[in-house]
């Protein structure tokens, strides 16, 4: 539980602080609270949240309500302005941090802003947001976990939940109570510069990783280190034409619902607290003004009861011209956006929204609905009772336990794509190893974008273990490790050369690759030097997406996709030296050439390595069958087998639209033995219900009977493990849910 002082006492402290700064005293109601007379219903924590919200709304002026709907950037607002404008939220943009940038400074900054909010007439606490997207990545010293594409490769929802919990503890220790994560985009074109923010290209995989929401928010909002999560970016940002950031997703509604909506439906099922709108468009219409998708689908159809936040200046893009206009504000708020992220233009936003309400173009009911959603989450988080930073968690920032978890995540995210002659794992003793490549000894490169600064950086930008340090730590004293960034100095005495190469950091916009997707000249020159020595080359590819490597692959004895591992490079070394076997599987299809983009599972194109591919080491079972010695032209197949019986739970969640629907199904093994191969069976109650297109399983239907059989990459279910599958369908008349499911012929219980 956040160990925060009572709101009444803190209001008194805030009042005295502001008086000392020459800021006018707030009205008497706050003074009464400061004296300990918390007699107003909204101040009574024993009352239901809905009752408290109703009471508070009835006491708020229009200006106070508009203030709650406004979010300003920390560098563009002062504590005094938070008080005078009654602002409801502050954020840190990418790289926006106090000086010095450490956990204690963040907590101090948070408390200054929060005390200013508590000094308003009604003492409504603010909520502070930050992009903690792979750990608390704006804070120097925080644990930096692998970016989402690497976590998707782990296929481990429970690991992802634990990462969310660890991140929440570090976030809470700095006072921040709201993270703009997770990104639930389904990346369908790897040219997109935010591909690494996606868990993968298949909606079921992304949906399965929404367990991170449970980690962020805890068992319930307001519990220990509970941080509000944000499902972003709604909707379809991973499917834009040509992978253009903030571009146009040109799909039918059925395709949009089948591919991009399921992860958000699952996030709503997990009670995610907020949803952030995408900069992108759907068939030419900007999402920030899309009434049908926000009010209609998200709030009404999916039943989302949290609040909707815009992206950074997102509503300013509605008319295509710079600067907020009244028309943009009106369209966005009426479309269902509850809180507007107006980092520097927040004053103009307030003025426009006030004028629109006074003119009757935005209704008071819409303003009250937005405030009800925002205030409900503030009450549920316990901000009214415990508004200040919980310093008991400050010491968890970058803790040994969290770094150990990150190292485990790194090792599980490694995908072994080639291993000719079983050169891996390398021997730790009596070995001579040459290490080269720009990314080998560079925490910034290993962490990628959204690390300390928005676009990321180079070098020792935050404490951690580089991949080179991990290699050196892994070998015995009888081994030699030599490093040269550009590969110079290698000779034939070395038994292996490890080339740690790949992309340099980038984030949205700057990361788009509309032309080439190959290795850059610096990396190619390094590889040429290593190859010329005759030493076997093991490539560790540090990248936020697949790169075009078909021409170079024959020269490499082994290839390990390391993604963007973060600060714990020891996890890469763990796999190179066999401390942990490689278990990662591709979360995206690996293109043969950039001209294939977009290339995705089931589209009929022949990738270099298919979705779900990943090798194991000799003596341990591979994640999927190994590739032939030449690049595969089709996904490898698993020999047919007779699935074993299993104890199971099944969850069945439906999203409907006119004439059609999508179903997301979760299968959980509740038995004590692993399941090697599975077939799910069920019967539609209505003869008019049909499966149209499925994912993450092989689907068949005969009459009303439906079966779904595992793919090669999700065939094994350990005890307690779950797998997500789904389909789109059509129906005539009613669309009731199946009442019974079987797994390998055995009946399952519901509510997985």
Which helices and strands appear, and what pairs or packs with what?
Elements: H1 7-20, H2 28-34, H3 49-59, H4 62-68, E1 70-73, H5 79-85, E2 89-92, H6 103-118, E3 127-130, H7 148-154, H8 157-172, E4 178-179, H9 203-208, H10 211-217, E5 230-234, E6 248-249, H11 253-259, H12 262-269, E7 274-277, E8 281-282, E9 285-286, H13 291-301, E10 307-309, H14 326-335, E11 340-341, H15 346-358, H16 364-381, H17 400-413, E12 415-419, E13 432-436, H18 443-447, H19 467-474, E14 480-484, E15 496-502, H20 521-532, E16 537-542, E17 558-563, H21 570-576, E18 648-657, E19 660-669, E20 675-676, E21 679-683, E22 690-695, E23 698-702, E24 705-709, E25 716-717, E26 722-730, E27 741-743, E28 746-747, E29 749-750
Parallel strand pairs: 1-2, 1-11, 2-3, 3-4, 5-7, 6-8, 7-10, 13-14, 13-15, 15-16, 16-17, 18-29
Antiparallel strand pairs: 8-9, 12-17, 18-19, 19-26, 20-25, 21-24, 21-27, 22-26, 23-24, 27-28
Helix pairs in contact: 1-2, 1-6, 3-16, 5-6, 7-17, 8-10, 8-17, 13-14, 17-21, 19-21
Question: What does this molecule look like?
Answer:
This protein is an alpha/beta fold. Helix content is 28%, strand content 17%. It contains 21 helices and 29 strands. The strands form 7 sheets. The chain has a 6-stranded mixed beta sheet with strand order 12-17-16-15-13-14, with helices on both faces. The protein has a 5-stranded parallel beta sheet with strand order 4-3-2-1-11. It has a 5-stranded mixed beta sheet with strand order 22-26-19-18-29. The longest helix has 18 residues. It is globular and about 80 Å long. The chain starts with 6 loop residues before the first helix and ends with a strand.
